[in-house]
Write a structure and sequence with these properties.
147 residues; mainly alpha; 4 helices
């Protein structure tokens, strides 16, 4: 579990669950990209919003030019709304990345413990009764089920 919490997928490799590793890396990589994408867009709209409030010209960076198509750089309300949308998306993707990272560690932990789980071929159920005759305690009777 600790290995997976440090580097995602290493716990699955250690447990020899190689088929789970691409899914872990895909989930962590995809959500990591979403965090990066939304953070860059948030910073672009944040800087544009600050510039519009200060009445200073804002030069749109090349990596954000596509997002500013049809956006009025002097309209503070529109810039603030777009900034808030990307900030919300950024926060949600950070929460998602954290959840996937933790679930990756939990998966490695559970998988490691279930590898040693003994699955017996005898899957019978035994019903019975029992009576304890302990001289130091009152008589006890009961019904039990044993798997």
């Amino acid at each position: 579990m600790i290995m997976s919490l440090i580097i995602p997928g290493t716990g699955q490799i250690y447990n020899k669950s190689y088929l789970r590793v691409p899914f872990v890396w895909g989930a962590v990589g995809g959500l990591g990209y979403l965090v990066h994408y939304n953070t860059i867009r948030y910073k672009c709209f944040r800087d544009a919003y600050i510039a519009s409030i200060d009445n200073t010209p804002y030069i749109v960076p090349e990596h954000c030019a596509k997002e500013f198509i049809g956006v009025d750089l002097n309209n503070s309300a529109q810039l603030k709304a777009n900034r808030d949308v990307y900030n919300n998306n950024r926060q949600l993707s950070i929460v998602g990345l954290s959840a996937v990272w933790i679930l990756n560690g939990i998966d490695a932990f559970v998988n490691a413990h279930l590898k040693e789980f003994d699955v017996n071929e005898d899957l019978s159920i035994d019903f019975g009764s029992r009576m304890d005759n302990d001289p130091n305690s009152p008589m006890r009777m009961g019904i039990f089920v044993q798997f």
